[in-house]
Amino acid sequence: MVVRRGGSLEGRIASSEITPHEAFLNRRSFVAGAAALGVGALALRQVPGLIHSGAVHAQQKLATVASKYNVPDAQTPFAKATTYNNYYEFGTDKSDPAKNAHTLQTRPWTVEVSGLVKKKQTIDIDTMMKYRPMESRVYRHRCVEAWSMVIPWDGYSLGEFISAMDPLPSAKYVQFLSDDSNKDMPDKPGGFNWPYSEGLRMDEAMNPLCLLTFGCYGEALPNQNGAPVRVVSPWKYGFKNGKSIVKIVFTDKQPHTLWNDMAANEYGFYSNVNPNVDHPRWSQAHERRIDSSTFPRTVPTLMFNGYGDQVASLYTGMDLKKNF
Ligand code: MTE
Fold first, then answer.
1. For residue range 27-56, what is the model confidence (pLDDT) as tens digits?
2. What is the distance between the alpha carbons of residues 200 and 240, in angstroms, rounded to a whole number?
3. What residues make up the domain containing 28?
4. Where are the beta strands (DSSP E) in the chain?
5. In a domain? residue 238
6. Mutate to test the pocket of ligand 1, among 239, 258, 260 (most ligand atoms within 8 A of CB)
7. Of all protein residues, whose CA lies closest to atom 22 belonging to ligand 1?
8. Which listed site, 35, 45, 222, 312, has its alpha carbon 20 to 30 Å from 59?
9. What does the CA dihedral 172, 158, 323, 321 come to, rounded to 10 degrees?
């Protein structure tokens, strides 16, 4: 297993760019910090809220560069991708998050990086967003519930961020914890082991396909899609992709994950898209593709969601029926 760590100083987040949490609450030091970073190069344009196709657009347009990681499949319309969501903290119906997630306050927002890492850090979301040029990547997005979408996500490879964080060689996994504050999510349903927790093996997280995601469709993520930052690992079922992340923890043990806690026989740690391993309650051989067609189409599910060339080698020698 090859995990790229540390590397040259060039391109890493210098400690001077990572200010303590309190500093981010101080508008003046944030502005000064942003100027020092030269963030103009990746200017984020504020536009008034727009309404189109019945869905509310986020307010922030993102500057992105083209990516080589695009699938040619027909894209899901913005209005569908932002109104048919799984974000249980805001309700369990697909339409709930779009109605309820307006209570999520995404600024100020910090992400704490801790565990097996050289230095624990708390990083402001705006610093995180500007660390690397964002790419727009059109990915297949396969939910474990056997529906799928095709979404242009905006972000940069998670591995680039991880390298800058200098995890220790003993770090074998990385855990992502979502926001669960009562202020932001006053009506979280009971019976779940909040906060939402997900994790990846380190080499999975370092795979360039794994996207630290700040936007979709060229705009900052709408709250219901996981603002201000989420993970997207396109060869895995969608539940691996925690939304609204506030903590990243490096660990030597496989971290607990919310859905695995709920039903370990249904939601494994790996959760690679696999048409040959059915969910105990339904087949995973096909999926309902929600794209620009008028009605969802049934299409065959692809091994690793069609990303086998890039990720199959991560699992050489593993029994993927046991490690579902
Ligand atoms: N993250 C949090 N914090 N809470 C959630 O309920 N749902 C997961 C994942 N991330 C979820 C989450 C599931 S089941 C899926 S399929 C995807 O988010 C859905 O992402 P989308 O709504 O942007 O399509």
1. 233 223 333 333 333 333 333 333 333 455
2. 8
3. 23-315
4. 45-46, 51-52, 55-56, 60-61, 64-65, 110-115, 121-124, 134-142, 147-157, 173-178, 197-201, 211-216, 219-220, 230-232, 245-251, 286-289, 297-300
5. yes
6. 239
7. 85
8. 35
9. -160
Summarize pLDDT for 164-194 with one digit per residue, the tens: 999 999 999 999 999 999 999 999 999 999 9
Cβ within 8 Å of residue 236, ≥6 positions away: 270, 271, 272, 273, 305
Classify residue 70: in a domain, yes or no.
Answer: yes
Q: Show the tokens assigned to 134.
A: 């964002």
> Which protein residue has the closest C-alpha to ligand 1 atom 11?
87
List C-alpha distances in Å: 248 to 115, 179, 312. 8, 11, 25
Pocket residues: Cβ below 6 A from ligand 1: 85-89, 141, 143, 178, 196, 225, 238-239, 241-244
Cβ(83)–Cβ(55) under 8 Å? yes
Distance 39 CA to ligand 1 centre (A): 30
Q: How far is the CA of 85 from the centre of ligand 1 (A)?
A: 7
Residue nearest to atom 12 of ligand 1 (CA): 242
Residues with Cβ within 8 Å of 117's Cβ and at least 6 positions away in sequence, in order, are 165, 166, 167, 168, 171, 250
Cα separation, 173 vs 253, in Å, equals: 7
CATH number (domain holding residue 119): 3.90.420.10
- How far does the centroid of ligand 1 lie from the alpha carbon of residue 87, in Å? 5
Q: Which atom of ligand 1 is nearest to the CA of 244?
A: 3
Output the DSSP codes for 44-105.
-EE----EETTEEPPSEE--EE--S----SPPPPHHHHTTS---GGG-SSTTHHHHHGGG--
Task: Let me know if residue 268 belongs to a domain.
Answer: yes
Total domains, the chain: 1
Q: Enter the pTM of the model.
A: 0.85
